Amino acid sequence: MRKYIYGTVLVAVGAAVAIFFFRPPETTNRPPQTVLAITFHFPQNYEFTEGAPFLLTWQAEGPEGKLSIPVPVEHFNPLASPYKLAFSPDPGSAAVVLNARLYYCHTLSRMCFQGDFKARVPLIAGNTSPISYVWEITPKTGNG
Predict the structure, then answer these.
(1) Binning pLDDT at 50, 70 and 90, where does residue 50 land?
(2) What's the pLDDT score for residue 98?
(3) pTM
(4) Within a domain: 17
(5) Is residue 41 part of a domain?
(6) What is the pLDDT of residue 141?
(7) Residue 31 confidence (pLDDT)
(8) Based on the number of CB atoms within 10 Å of its own CB, is 56 exposed (0-12), middle (13-18) or buried (19 or more)?
(9) Would you tell me how many other CB atoms lie within 10 Å of the CB of residue 20?
(10) What is the model's pLDDT at position 111?
(11) Does the chain have fewer CB atoms within 10 Å around its N or its C terminus?
(12) Are 31 and 89 in contact (CB under 8 A)?
């Protein structure tokens, strides 16, 4: 009789171990990715500096206006227009805030500059299609 009890316990333990290790992985409901198609626009006589090291970071803005940690975008190239940025904002995010370090030149004077620019793009809840955004870049002028 003990043989049957030990055998049953051994089979139950083996089945529990098999179920634990061979169960399907848990999936979490991740928010869908949002694609932001950014077109950069300079005023007349300004253009990007070819071959410069550009930088773009983005943060999601929460419902109370709080920002998340900035996330750098690798291989950012504003010359590839429109530049498509794929990101996953937190549920309830109201906007994405973009920060860009751009290198540009004035074509008439041939002077080149570096500038930091910021933009806020509102998000539409449940929008799964790409969001088109024209980023009007205003170069800093004056003596400082």
Answers:
(1) confident
(2) 95
(3) 0.70
(4) no
(5) yes
(6) 65
(7) 57
(8) buried
(9) 8
(10) 92
(11) C
(12) yes
Is 40 within the bounds of a domain?
yes
Strands 34-41 and 71-72: unpaired
**DSSP per position, 45-81:** TEEE-TT---EEEEEEE-TTS-B---EEPTT--TTSS
Q: Which two tokens stand for residue 132?
A: 């088109």
The total of structural domains in the chain comes to 1
Closest CA to 58 of 89, 103, 17: 89
Cα–Cα distance measured from residue 111 to residue 74, given in angstroms and rounded to the nearest whole number: 27
In the block, tokens 């950012």 appear at 76
Q: Let me know if residue 59 belongs to a domain.
A: yes
Give the whole-angstrom CA distance, residue 60 versus residue 86: 13
Terminal CA-to-CA distance of the chain, rounded, Å?
94
Q: How confident is the model at residue 62 (pLDDT cuts 50, 70, 90)?
A: confident
Instruction: Give the domain extent around 97.
Output: 34-136
Instruction: Give me the DSSP letters along 75-102.
Output: T--TTSSSEEEEE-PPTT--EEEEEEEE
